[in-house]
Amino acid sequence: MERARKSNVDRLSALPDGVISNILSFLPTDLSVKTSILAKTWRFLWAHVPVLDFRCNYGSLQKIRFPGIVSTVMLRHKVEILNTFRLTIGVTMVPRRNVKNLDLNLEVKLPRCVLSCNTLVDLRMAGHVTLPDSGPISLSSLKKLHFCDVTHEVDLPRLLSGCPVLEELIIDQSRCFNLGGGIISSPTLKRLTIYFPNSRVKINAPALRYLKVYFYMYQQISVSLMKSLIEAHICLGNFAESDHRCVLKFLDSLCNVKCLKLPFHYEKTFSLPVTSSIVKFGSLTRLELSTDWCFLTKFLQSADHLQVLIITECRWHSKYWMDPVEERCACLFHSLRSVTIYEFQCTEQDFNMVRFVLRNAQVLERMEICCPREGVVLKKEFDAIHRISLFRRGSKECELAFS
What we know:
Blueprint: H1 2-7, H2 17-24, H3 29-34, E1 51-54, H4 60-76, E2 84-87, E3 101-109, E4 122-130, E5 144-150, H5 156-161, E6 168-172, E7 183-185, E8 191-195, E9 201-204, E10 210-214, E11 221-223, E12 231-235, H6 244-252, E13 259-262, H7 267-270, H8 275-278, E14 286-291, H9 293-302, E15 308-314, H10 330-334, E16 338-341, H11 348-360, E17 366-369, H12 378-389, E18 399-402
Parallel strand pairs: 1-2, 2-3, 3-4, 4-5, 5-6, 6-8, 7-9, 8-10, 9-11, 10-12, 12-13, 13-14, 14-15, 15-16, 16-17, 17-18
């Protein structure tokens, strides 16, 4: 360090221009431009950074000047293909420089040139963004579309119709966001995430592989059969008794899923007499749920190829564990290999469930039981470990673990 100071070596400037440009790409553009005063060799390095990040948090006067600043920077910028263009204030000038990623946080109607940008791959919109009332939409290269806290109606069906290769759609925390009829239709969509929409949703995405749905309150959701679905994370919140059959129909559309996560309580729905004939998860290999034990029995009977079972929380109301008919739980005989139970409360019903699985799971390799430290005294926990370790096991290879 002392040698570097004495010899006044500028190690940063000695780096290749490409490396310096990459470092500058992590800075807001105004700071990147300011580095031009460091040395003569730095004067125009900012102009070759493939990322333009304009985030204005200034007062009203600076906001008035901001569009002119953006225009000046764009005129002097030398990169032919712009990887990312990020704006957080309304401007009339829109990038026409082969932009790949566009991140907008604006109060603006999108110009038509944005909606016909053939190089755009990733488009993120937040705030009060609106589309032109008419005119074509052609985003021929767009693969990812993300709405976050959008506060105005967007004609989503019209927008999706202009995205022929779209693979991922995220609608995040947009409670004032109107889905334009609630129709999400795309033959190429592979990943769909919806957080708390404000309208009913109809999904038609035959190529969908990943689905994540969060609703505060239950909204009727209609989904066409998704044969390509691999993973689903479903949280439908609360719903009225009149919605039960709609929920069943929705879950039935997930019958081909391989990994399923259900973090809330649906035991009332699955207690309907039509359940056994409608919901069958023939491809399901991994299940993660938080529910009453009685709901678990339904899955043991409907997921014949289940291999991994994770129970994140066990809750009790008025229902008790009842051993299901063993012959109907095909997964216990030939596929279930791993069971993890979190928040084990050491109730008699918990022990009954564990006893049933250990006794009947003939290929089980590991069962891990996790007790909440704050809710179970140490002696009670040791007693639970001792009691469970004495349960008969259907699999000689089964390993018990406690934490």
